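Bit of a strange request maybe. I'm writing a small parser for structure token strings and I need a real example to test against, not something I typed by hand. Could someone generate the tokens for this chain?
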Amino acid sequence: MRHLLLIIGAKLKLNKNYKDYIIRQYKAVFKELNECLCFDKSTKELPFLLEAWSNEYDFITIFTSSELYGTNAKIVATLGEDSLVLKNELLVPSKAIKWVENSFLMQIGSCQINVLKSSINEKLPPLLCEVKHNFDFFCLRDMDEESVLILLDSLAKSYEIELLSLSLLENLVLIKAVGAKFSNLESFLQATKTLFNQKIIWGADPIEFIASKLIEKKLKISFAESCTAGLCASELARFNGISAIFEGSLISYSNRLKNEWLGVSELVLQNEYSDKCVYFMLKGTFKTSDCDFALAISGVAGDSDDRGVKAGTVFIGAMYRDGSFLQESLHFKGDRNFVRYQTVLASFMLMIKLKPEIFF
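Reply from user aminoacidic:
Good idea to test on real output. This should exercise your parser:
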């Protein structure tokens, strides 16, 4: 299955927040972003490009700004040797196989083309493509990429599955399994579940998996964040239903707030980049929040070393309400934001290492 996303209109292209919204809605249907192209406007070449693409892709999704909708709808209608008619106050091709407010679906050969009229600050219309996926994602924890592929190789071959792998962290591997037949894929996933048991995390987003388990078990979480500056809380807040398990957290970027809010002593704060500092940040989180899990983070996310600590070095910790805890010291290579996002993912994964019985 090949699919293409087109975003047409300078306003949609330049507004990063709205563009991200478009991509999230697209991925909710297609599970991944395969190929994406952005245009400031409808060019003279677009009709010819669409004709070529309709022979190459199974699905083409076009998000177009409202002012360019008429032009782009006409291009798609012409491609299907059709004309536009007014249906429910929306111009759509007369041969459209499905339409709702601000969205229509057109079948051209073996390709489905979905055109969506999009306006900044308005809710996006629904995608109308009926997609049958021949692939799925899962993650394997506490294993390196090479070991995962060795263990999966013979299993994948027996079910005619193609594997694509990506190391998200040193011991966290994302797998995309692609099957020639849907039944083969289902059988492969079931066999993989049997083989790996508590090491498997379904889906491409481990944080979403963790959040869903916390909501299911009604377990509250809070954070004490320094160098990640609230990113743990932000990542958690992406998901619906989080208010049931998340009251708030502390962004203690400065040592003064680590001391005043979390009770970390000035003696410990002489070396805030340390396991000891993170331990007392965890303890302080339980004093300020009625949580079941606490995560704490301190480190150097910037590009320069700080007081003998190398850039990219972070200290993370997870603690449960019974007092049990785990801590790790990690080093990431990349820019400031890459280090911060990797740190957040590693911190959430530390919860699973601490209490696997809660998540599996």
